[in-house]
Amino acid sequence: RELSCKEQLQSISMEWMSQICQYVVRDLEKYGICVVDNFMGKERAEAIHRSVVSMYHSGVFVEGETVSSSLETTKNVRSDKITWVDGSESNCANIAVLISTIDTIIMNAIRMKGNGQLGQRTIGGRTKAMIACYPGSGSHYVKHVDNPNRDGRCITTTYYVNKDWDAKTVGGLLRIFPQGWANQVVDIEPILDRMVFFWSDRRNPHEVQPAFRTRYAITVWYFDAKEREEARIRHREGAVKEPKSNE
Ligand SMILES: Cc1cc(NC(=O)CCC(=O)O)nc(C)c1Br
Ligand SMILES: [Fe+3]
Fold first, then answer.
1. Predicted ipTM of the assembly
2. Is residue 64 lining ligand 1, measured as CB closer than 6 Å?
3. Residue 146 Cα, ligand 2 centroid: separation in angstroms?
4. Does any ligand 1 atom lie closer than 6 A to the CB of residue 132?
5. Quick one: pLDDT at residue 224?
6. Closest residue (by CA) to atom 1 of ligand 1?
């Protein structure tokens, strides 16, 4: 019988889990960015890749909503296609395990901190998983901050499912411009089974450079409980326009 999600998670050795959590805590607090390779293991990563490709071909992806209010057309700001999943959809069993794994890492990283906080943030809730596809032929996403105006999102987690990706020939780098690092940039190749964690606020402006091959990424945003509550209150008063990317 198929192992339940819970059993699958337990099969992931606790040792691996605590190793990853130590990296996430240390790197997020020291650099604001953490990159973890071989996050789900090759078999599961390839299964997630197959699921995402078949979902893309089934036509459930839609044009990415621009979050910038400027009059530019969508094409100039970003040209990805997206779909939101919670993991219960058909063909998403492996994505459900990915989401549960990220949840477990974030929750254990906070527990490890002991003060119930990660980078002085109390994590409270998350979005669904947004699967993005950059259809190649130069599709990109201009430099932006995920959460410039305190909408509640505090950690961006992005998982890549691109097999045999070579950025030297097909581009598609995630380039982060970490605030406070002088003019250094962090270039991250969107390779299969790579997980990236970074603060969603103004500390990490980032862009997706033009990609010349179909490029998939799965993103989940984790909320800071207090900031999210404040955003809800402001939103109820109608002062804040919620960007589309929040579920
Ligand atoms: C919908 C949406 C997606 C993203 N994704 C990226 O920045 C690219 C990450 C990557 O694929 O390497 N960012 C924002 C602010 C919104 Br909104
Ligand atoms: Fe972004």
1. 0.93
2. yes
3. 5
4. yes
5. 93
6. 245
Cα–Cα distances in angstroms (integers) from residue 209 to residues 9, 29, 165, 175, in the given order? 34, 26, 14, 7
Q: Is the CB of 245 under 6 A from ligand 1?
A: yes
Give residue-wise pLDDT tens across range 164-183.
999 999 999 999 999 977 78
DSSP the chain: -PPPHHHHHHHS-HHHHHHHHHHHHHHHHHTSEEEESSSS-HHHHHHHHHHHHHHHHTT--EEPPP---SS--HHHHB--EEEEE-S-STT-HHHHHHHHHHHHHHHHHHHHHSSS-BTTB-EEEE--EEEEEE-STTEEEEEE-S-TT--SEEEEEEEE-BTT--HHHHB--EEE--TTBTB--EEE--BTTEEEEEE-STT--EEEEEESS-EEEEEEEEEEHHHHHHHHHHHHTT-S---TT--
Task: Take atom 4 of ligand 1 and give the residue whose Cα is closest.
Answer: 146
- Ligand 1 contact via 201 beta carbon (within 6 Å): no
Closest residue by CA, ligand 1 atom 12:
174
Residue 154 contacts residue 130 (beta carbons within 8 Å): no
The rounded Å distance from CA 238 to ligand 1 centre is: 25
The phi, psi pair for 197, rounded to 5°, reads -115, 135
What are the tens digits of pLDDT across the range 74-113? Answer: 455 667 899 999 999 989 999 999 999 999 999 888 777 7
Distance 184 CA to ligand 2 centre (A): 18
pLDDT one-digit tens code per residue, 45-76: 999 999 999 999 999 999 876 544 444 444 55
